[in-house]
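Hello K.,

You asked for the raw outputs rather than the summary table, so here they are, unedited. I folded two proteins back to back in the same session to keep the settings identical. This is the first:
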Amino acid sequence: MGYVSAVPVPQPRAARAAVPTGGRRSLAAALLLGALGATVVLLSAGQIWAEGTASVGGGSIPVEADGGTVTGVPTALAIVGLAALFAVFAVRRTGRTLVAALLALSGAGAALAAVLGASDSTALDAEAARISGDTAAAVAGLSHTAWPYVTAAGAVLILLAGLFALRFGKSWPAMGGRYERSGTPRAARKAPTTDPDRPEDLWKALDRGEDPTHGS
């Protein structure tokens, strides 16, 4: 009569994966959207948003204002969103949900501020008053560029990254500790062995509060 050896059946690769395929895709999408959106906001906020002319000494000179002069809100919120994007991986459970919500709100707030700044003339009026020396000076021929709307588009990408984190964040891995693929606790650290024939090992065991004669 022959013997049948028990051969362990290999588990499917998908079952051993730390993050499901859908989780990996949503994670990559959130990282891409958030990083790209923050980059677009930070770069476009430094561009010229508004242009016009100011009357000085019977003539007129051109005046302009960049996004940071019009409103600093999109830049500030883009930095907050970028920090929240990476903080998502440092927290879990409720903390991850709260950080993901902060990420989404940062994108929404930056988009709203950019859209409102697209029609704001306050920054140009202040620049005209500074140049002319007349606090009542106003800008003529006011026009706005497309950069506020580019900023808003970048902010929408940050918003989408936050929505991805809210929807799929529970399946994403977290930083810290070991990769808990099987969900089992880490094996206890094995105590160092003591050689009773080596005096230095006996002293080290006594320093650790162990009985060097135990088990010998």
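The second followed immediately with the same parameters:
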Amino acid sequence: MTPNMQTDVAGDGTRDEALAQRELKRQWRKTAIARRKRTNPEERLEAGRKLAEQARQANLIHSFTTVAAFASMGSEMSMTPMLQTLFDSNCRILVPRLGKGTDIGWSELDSIHDLHDQTNSDGSINTHRPQEPSNSACGPEALKDAGLIIVPAFAVDHEGFRLGRGGGWYDRALEYRAIGARVVAVCWPWEPTDEPVPHEAHDIPVNGVLTPNGFTEVRQ
């Protein structure tokens, strides 16, 4: 076998593995969404309240710091209590500005009431996009100001690999994080897993997992 042929075989193997991991992610995501849809709005709000309380107890929130968080959507637990807790602690809050979906951007959130639904071209609410503020967006480098970065997850394993929404937005965004910043994944209590989460080379592990039942540091 010539060197070029060896490279081609290795390349094919790498591509096949990446495709297999993406298919596993798709299956895991489908199962997770189906389970989450069995929750109701009241349960999501109560879970959000407990989540904020666990963040306080775990000493994740420090006054007068910058925190990158997110606005919940769909069957995610409500992030409103967490955002309000950050405001009450005098934190500066950054939330994602998705732009075209691949663009990385952040905006400073001044109030819970500044979050607005995103609309489709026909004026209907886009249920596949989180709420965003209407102020100007900052570039991806704004994340360097954040000491705590809170990200959504469908699953997290013991190595810190998380299953996200599928667009790779956070993995690209986290490339801009500051050295020493803590990245914490938020998920429902049944979603941290002993089984390795399917992942690819570009996936960035988190430092901890926060659920309504508590906070766990991740072994890395």
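The longest strand covers residues 92-96.

Happy to rerun anything if the numbers look odd on your end.

Regards,
P.
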